[in-house]
Amino acid sequence: MRELNESIIPLEQVPAEGLALQGGIPPRRLDRLREATAGLPEAVAIDLRLEPRNDVYILSGRVTGQVALQCEYCRAHFDHPLAAELFLTVEPDPEREVQPDPAQKGEVWVLTQSDNQVEAPEGRLDLVGALEDEWLLGLPQSPICDPACRGLCPVCGADRNEAECGCSRPRRENPFAILAQLKQDS
Ligand SMILES: [Zn+2]
Ligand SMILES: [Zn+2]
Q: Mean pLDDT across the stretch 141-167?
């Protein structure tokens, strides 16, 4: 898979029939996603199309990639797939309602979370930045490796998915006590 060349795309250069955007985005170009997760095992493959539609542009297509996350219960790393389908509206003239995000100093685009809209001030789309933002928004708040994860033993710390450690349990099972213990340990 070749590496994606495009980074900033001047929208006026997008032909009427659309622009194909294909290739891999290596982990080194996705700093924020790397920092927000336990890392990226490999490049994220994209097969997207950017097309003019009325006053805006539509960025849509398929994504194949995953990030490593750490399970909140057992602390093991596990692979989490990025959403496979992508559909974003690119707004080339966001002047009317630009909301600069102080957390993104120096970034020229702002993502509106509610309607999958990406802003491209002065008609320039930061493609990799927009994709990275979309993937960051899609990360689970509480990563769990498996709905049946049994977590770590609050007494000895053993991974109870692997073996029963045999520690005696509190007389009354209280899931909140276990969560509190996990928090103290972290
Ligand atoms: Zn787990
Ligand atoms: Zn134990």
A: 94
Q: Give distance in angstroms: CA of 163 to centre of ligand 1.
A: 13
Which class for 15: exposed (0-12), middle (13-18), buried (19 or more C-beta within 10 A)?
Answer: exposed
Residue 148 C-alpha to ligand 1 middle, in angstroms?
8
How far, in Å, are 106, 123, 150, 160 from residue 80 at the CA level?
Answer: 29, 33, 19, 21
Ligand nearest the Cα atom of residue 155: 2
Alpha carbon of 120 to ligand 1 centroid (Å): 39
Give distance in angstroms: CA of 158 to centre of ligand 2. 5
Round to whole Å and give the CA distance between 30 and 78.
Answer: 19
pTM for the whole thing?
0.75
Which tokens hold the place of 84? 């496979």
Contacts of 181 (CB under 8 A, 6+ apart): 154
What's the confidence (pLDDT) of residue 168? Answer: 78
Contacts for 23-26 with beta carbons within 8 Å, 24 or more apart? 25/65, 25/128, 25/131
